[in-house]
Amino acid sequence: MTEGVFTPAHVLAEAIRRREVSLEVVEAYLAQIARHNPDLNAIVTLDEDGARVKAQEADAALAQGEEWCPLHGSPITLEDAHSTSGMRTTWGGLALLADYVPEEDGTVAARLKAVGAILLGKTNGPEIWPDSVFARSRSHGAECGGSAPRAARPRRTRRARHPCVTRRVARSRAAQNG
User: Fold this and answer.
1) Helix, strand, coil % (nearest 5) of the chain?
2) What is the dihedral angle through the alpha carbons of 117, 42, 144, 159, rounded to the nearest 10 degrees?
3) CA atoms of 13 and 78, how far apart (whole Å)
4) What is the distance between the alpha carbons of residues 8 and 122, in angstroms, rounded to a whole number?
5) How far is CA 154 from CA 123, 131, 135, in A?
């Protein structure tokens, strides 16, 4: 089923709805992550058990004739900046949020789950914080985070920070320095 991890999402979702594939899709994605993530550090938080449970629920729903919408049972990942209920969300590795677990989903996670997507985990984000818990030495260095490790290129220049980011970094450093 490893070819399924390269299948377009709409094709995969249709195959799941037709019951041609099911839990094995999630297992194939988890196997792919296990195989490549140690070198890439693309997935910074992984919920294998939760994904398997949700995939079993998706299969059971299909067996009863229920369909959860367009992405029924389709595995996804989200960038770490998106709040996800019960799953660590550090907003790009901000040290201040290293152990933060939101109680509710943000808009993106809620909408994707509402259309049947199964959240496997969170991807590494771009290095936007100077003291990221997911430091460049543990990341692929791509601007787009864990979503495209093949595009990995070290940054040569720094962009100007948005004023809100600059204030947050200053407050974070002040809090750390006491």
Assistant:
1) 45, 10, 45
2) 140
3) 18
4) 20
5) 18, 17, 13
* pLDDT tens per residue, range 95-146: 788 889 999 999 999 999 998 999 999 998 765 555 555 555 555 444 445 4
- Produce one character per residue of 28-55: b if its CB has 16 or more CB atoms within 10 Å, e if not: bbbeebeeebeebbbbbbbbeeebbebb
Q: How many CB atoms lie within 10 A of CB 72?
A: 20
Residue 150 neighbours by CB under 8 Å, 6+ apart = none
Residues spanned by the domain of 78: 2-177
| Counted domains in the chain | 1
pTM of the shown model: 0.70
Residue 85 — pLDDT band, cuts 50, 70, 90? very high
Tokens 């809090």 locate to 175
86 closest CA partner among 127, 54, 61, 58:
54
Mean pLDDT value across residues 61-70: 87
Angle at 45 (CA atoms; ends 39, 48), nearest 5 degrees: 95
